[in-house]
């Protein structure tokens, strides 16, 4: 075992064997005093993070460590236990949990000289998902008539607070015309929650000859795991 230039103050670590005698030789350039210090290396520390912070069962969850070795030896291994029967030795693993639940994830690290540390955190997986399954409008309407646009929202997982935004068609795209917010209970019976947003037919709609609607549902207290089914467009309403 050897070490270091005179002005290099980085620590040297090594694995000492019980019952063995070690001889340390310290040199000096004679211009100043030098101190020799021998300590037991401090334990490493480790923590980890994951993204997204609110994963669903559909997400590929990225995990990473923030390990630190105060002795400077460096790390030789990383061992992940995801709490669902699977493991990884990657530094930055990507993992999909098999379902909703509170999964205890454990990360264990080992330095190159054999010291270890570990940490565990609970990763809460919740799959929030609502869908607009029907958008009902009358087939015809007249200028000045107020019609009710009925939006049916399905929810099978957790009780949610949902806002439905309604937009109407124009020659250049869709523009907002109203919104409605309701609690949407979870049910597996096929029952939906009905949102009704009123719209008064305009002369602009008459000039086009028809109007259609687009409804968009948004969760207010969670991230929707499958937002692609949160939007639906109606059939055109003929305006006379």
Please characterize this protein's 3D structure.
This protein has 1 helix and 17 strands. The chain is mainly β. The protein has 2 domains: 78 residues, Sandwich (Immunoglobulin-like); 110 residues, Immunoglobulin-like (Sandwich). The strands form 5 sheets. It has a 4-stranded antiparallel beta sheet, with no helix packed on it. Strands 12-11-15-16 form a 4-stranded antiparallel beta sheet. Strands 1-2-5 form a 3-stranded antiparallel beta sheet, with no helix packed on it.
What's the layout of helices and strands?
Elements lengths: L47 E4 L9 E5 L9 E7 L5 E2 L5 E2 L5 E11 L4 E10 L4 E7 L3 E2 L4 E10 L4 E11 L2 E12 L8 E8 L2 H6 L1 E2 L1 E7 L11 E3 L3 E3 L1
Parallel strand pairs: 9-17
Antiparallel strand pairs: 1-2, 2-5, 3-4, 3-6, 6-7, 8-10, 10-13, 11-12, 11-15, 14-17, 15-16
CATH C-level name of the largest domain: Mainly Beta
* Overall body shape: elongated
* Low-confidence region ranges: none
Number of strands: 17
Overall CATH architecture of the largest domain: Sandwich
Write out key terms for the chains shown.
single chain, 240 residues, mainly beta, Immunoglobulin-like, four-stranded antiparallel sheet, 1 helix, 17 strands, 2% helix, 44% strand
How would you summarize what this structure contains?
The chain has 1 helix and 17 strands. It is mainly beta. The strands form 5 sheets. The protein has a 4-stranded antiparallel sheet with strand order 4-3-6-7, with no helix packed on it.
């Amino acid at each position: 075992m050897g070490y270091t230039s005179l002005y290099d103050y980085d620590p040297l670590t090594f694995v000492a064997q019980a019952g063995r005698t070690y001889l340390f030789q310290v040199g000096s350039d004679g211009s100043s005093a030098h101190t020799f210090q021998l300590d037991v290396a401090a334990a490493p520390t480790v923590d980890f993070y994951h993204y997204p912070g609110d994963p669903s069962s559909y997400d590929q969850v990225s995990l990473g460590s923030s390990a630190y070795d105060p002795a400077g030896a460096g790390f030789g291994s990383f061992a992940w236990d995801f709490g669902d029967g699977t493991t990884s030795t990657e530094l930055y693993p990507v993992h999909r949990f098999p379902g909703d639940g509170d999964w205890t994830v454990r990360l264990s690290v080992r330095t190159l000289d054999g010291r270890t540390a570990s940490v565990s955190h609970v990763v809460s997986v919740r799959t929030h998902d609502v869908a607009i399954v029907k958008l009902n409008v009358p087939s015809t309407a007249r200028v000045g008539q107020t019609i009710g646009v009925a939006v049916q929202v399905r929810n099978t997982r957790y009780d949610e607070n949902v806002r439905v935004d309604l937009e109407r068609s124009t020659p250049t795209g869709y523009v907002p015309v109203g919104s409605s917010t309701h609690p949407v209970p979870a049910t597996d019976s096929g029952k939906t929650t009905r949102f009704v947003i009123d719209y008064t037919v305009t002369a602009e709609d008459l000039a086009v000859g028809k109007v259609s609607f687009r409804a968009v549902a948004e969760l207010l207290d969670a991230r929707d795991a499958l937002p692609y089914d949160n939007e639906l467009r109606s059939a055109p309403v003929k305006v006379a």
